[in-house]
Amino acid sequence: MPSIGTRAQVMGVALLALALFPLVANPYLLYVVNLGVIYVVLAVGLNLLLGFGGQFAFANAALFGIGAYATGLLQVRLQWPYLLAVGAGAVFTTGVGLLVALPALRLSGLYLAMATLAFAQFTQWVLLNWETVTFGAGGFKIPPPRFDPLPLTSAQGIYYLSLFVAAVLVILAWNVVRSRVGRALVAIRDSELAAEALAIDLARYKTIAFVLSAFYAGMAGALYSATLNFVAPEGFDLFQMVVQFSMVVVGGLGSIWGSVLGAGLLLAMQEGLRAFKGAQEIAFGLLLMLCIIFLPEGLISFLKRHMRGWSEPLRRPDPRR
Amino acid sequence: MRTFRFAAILLSVLAASVLPAVPAAHAQSAVGVTADTVKIGTFGALTGPGYLYGKIIMNGAETVYNEVNKAGGIHGRKIVLVREDDRCDAAAAIAAVKKLIFQEQVFMLHGGGCSNATIAARPEIEKGNLPFVVFASVADEVTVPTHPQIFSTALSASIESASQLEFALKQGATRIAVISQRDAWGRSRYTPLMEHFKRKGITPVADEELSGDANDATPQVLRLRQARPDAVLMVLYPKPGAVFLRDAHKVGFKPVAIGQTALGDLIAFREQVGIPGAIDRFYTISHVRYTVEDPEMEKWRALLQQNFSSDRLSVYNVVGIASAQVVVEVLKRAGKDLTREKVQAELQKLKGFDTGIYPGVITCTPTDHQCHKTPAWIQLVGDKVKTVAVTPVER
Amino acid sequence: MLAYLLVSGLASGCLYALVAMGLVVVYKSTTVVNFAHGELFMVAGFFAYTLHVLLRVPYLPALLLAVLASFALGMLTERLAYRPLMHAPTISLVLAAVGFSFVLKGLARQIWGGRGDYIPFPPLLGTDPIIFGEIVLVPQQLVVVAATIICMVLFAAFFRWTRTGKTMQATAENAKAARLVGIRVDRVYALTWGLGAAAAGVAAVLMAPLTFVYPDIGMSLLVKAFAAAVLGGFGSLPGAILGGLSVGVIEQLAGGYLHTSLMEISAFVIIMAVLIVRPTGFLGARGLRRV
Fold this sequence. Notes:
The structure holds three protein chains of three kinds.
Chain A: H1 7-20, H2 27-52, H3 60-78, H4 82-104, H5 109-129, H6 131-134, E1 140-141, H7 154-177, H8 180-190, H9 192-197, H10 202-228, E2 230-231, H11 238-251, H12 256-272, H13 280-294, H14 299-306
Antiparallel strand pairs in A: 1-2
Chain B: H1 2-18, E1 37-44, H2 55-70, E2 78-85, H3 90-103, E3 108-111, H4 115-128, E4 132-134, E5 150-152, H5 157-170, E6 176-180, H6 184-200, E7 206-209, H7 218-226, E8 231-235, H8 238-250, E9 256-258, H9 266-273, E10 282-286, H10 298-307, H11 315-334, H12 340-349, E11 376-381, E12 384-390
Parallel strand pairs in B: 1-2, 1-3, 3-4, 4-5, 6-7, 6-8, 8-9, 9-10
Antiparallel strand pairs in B: 10-11, 11-12
Chain C: H1 2-30, H2 37-54, H3 59-82, H4 90-111, E1 130-132, E2 135-137, H5 139-161, H6 163-173, H7 175-180, H8 185-207, H9 217-231, H10 237-258, H11 263-277
Helix pairs in contact in C: 1-5, 1-8, 1-9, 1-10, 2-3, 2-4, 2-8, 2-9, 3-4, 3-8, 5-6, 5-8, 6-8, 9-10, 9-11, 10-11
């Protein structure tokens, strides 16, 4: 396949297409693509922790939920304006992520998975049962944010905000990965012992990875709450975690652009599989298995083989021994 | 230059895929209607445990629509039913409704299974400005505050909860206990139930909570037994309901048990509880007068078995059949020149419409869109479902 | 009340223990957690239902056939979701198994779900409760406990005294060395997965009369079994049993004495606490770090 241009050019064109999209799309398609953009933020953040950092943690879906709830509750209970609530929600989620990271530093492998899984279940329980604050199982509605004085409807405003935030965060991740932090994470992923021997402070860099992914999840949650105008506990459970993991793995572990692709693909699958009506689960499961078995290094490996300029440094995690 | 070629290709592909979905400049009233079809959108759970209140009901409704189409349609228009899955999940319901309204461009909606999903989707439906007839969602917030275009042919949570308490009192119970799920569904019934207790000046002697996926209810049963109630009001889905009755039987606790429409399929419920005699003192509410096994439903049963052979037959099919008959009647009354405004006007005017399947008549008023107010109380006697009482609620 | 709760807890704990044993057996041998384990359990339950209730096969043969079927299904899982990905990162293996679990769940819903999702299963010995003084038991609970003990003994005997068992242990300890001495490691892996699934199958058939068989049971059971295995220190079969019993009892006690909403979460709170204090679980070995 001939090259279709450098990566930067392709991404630029895609961004342009996305920016023009609201002009032609009906509200359903706008909603779907908006969700896709939010998923990109989630996937990139998770990849920092999982693909680059090698930390197999289940907390991301819960942090996503905390971001959505924090933002929504600040608006509904304390009448904060939306943009302020977004910032505060993201910061709050980052704080929670830090709290989770501290005990998680001592754990690895299965035990880390279990501890973060326990945290995820605990968060679900709190969201369901702490009714005085979280409105409990029924969830709550959020008034659509207003974007005066810009001439945008609420849905369009959220779309452009999401696009902007996603672009900024993807570029940020790209830079983190190529910085010393990124290299340290990869060293830790490939061998903690060797990394320690090289005087890399494990605790510090693992914490950075957790905190970064929590921030991304919090921002994604804040945007999600306004896209849906509704927040309920079920959207942040283990199934959501599976979807997030799938995005990262199908796109390509340890590849930022892979996560972008993975997010888009997963979303397309979720909505596209509606056509299967009752057989959605089977179709999703089969597609997931096929992607993982036949493209174990993710979609990005396919692109890399066929297009120049797509390689990324330090991309591939080491195979299992 | 390759990039520009790529850009051009990408943009035209995007445009080609998106533009057909852009609605042409139709007048609002003509969306979803052509000279010989009318498109009805339906949403509910097609997969997941809530499918009884989604897919099964849709099967019933579709059977009615097929029959109408076979007879030539309504004023020459055939009904096209488009299904979307909300998996009983709020986010999925919002997406499903958006898709039906903006992508499929349906004329009206006839659906709504799990209440919490329907409530989440309600703002979208309101924005969509089209009539919506609810067939199964019972939570009050679905129809209250009243919206000019949202009507319900299902009982409501507050009607059912009040009816549960009234029935217990009529059976002579003085010590009444409650066991409920506290998820969104459970809460939508539990809250009005407690309000009704207060209005009657009674306090429940025990108030237990049971999770929807519990496999064991021993602690709850033990505590309930200690309170020695005459009747237990069950705000539970079939699985926890069966677990409860089974564990109650295990410790020899056999109060009068009073259910609601989620436990409306008595024959299946008896099979689930699995212990002979365990539901002898169990009464529950049904939306409809007949079960699918009754002789009056013979014709529908045959059609269901023919068209939906892999799905189970259940009383929820009948719920769909009854609700669809209301929709068909309203479409007929709206006349040949079919617009959304006309359908809405006909719905508001609907008075005393007897489907023959609902226990009472369907009546909507401009201020009250809760059109079904007649719970039927049923009990399993031998192998037959018997109607014990029909208790219409004052308007 | 305490007596009831303890008995209920031990009975459900036995089931968690069996399922957890299946997880641990596979983990010890292949260092992989089988995320489709819950669905293997679920399919075995439906199989048993089809055989025993729909086709009227007597209970014990139905049990054996269902266990055999889940053994085969376990081997299939290994072939599809493990072997092609042996050298991929753990997360890929996890997701492949998860994908397979969705396929199984969807198929179960299509095949059996339409007929009634919470399918009741008649118990082995009838439903009349047995009363020991203060304690009330359903006979099926006794069957569960007895069967779990038998299984544990069989497992222990298998690993200790049979050649295959020792082969599996050898492979678990050092796969390369096992290959060098001529052990067919692929076959061992297939057998191991089959065995793990069979344990889940036994649990399913035992559990079916006490709970119900439904397509969504897999995930919540997997999470509980995972919790039980971690509590006992992943990699230790006696630990899995101890963990399973603990989870069962803790759930019931929390529900009985504290609040029913805590039943779902109590196991996790305990685990979080245990992992903070003892990061490798009750009986987990402080592993050597391989350089």
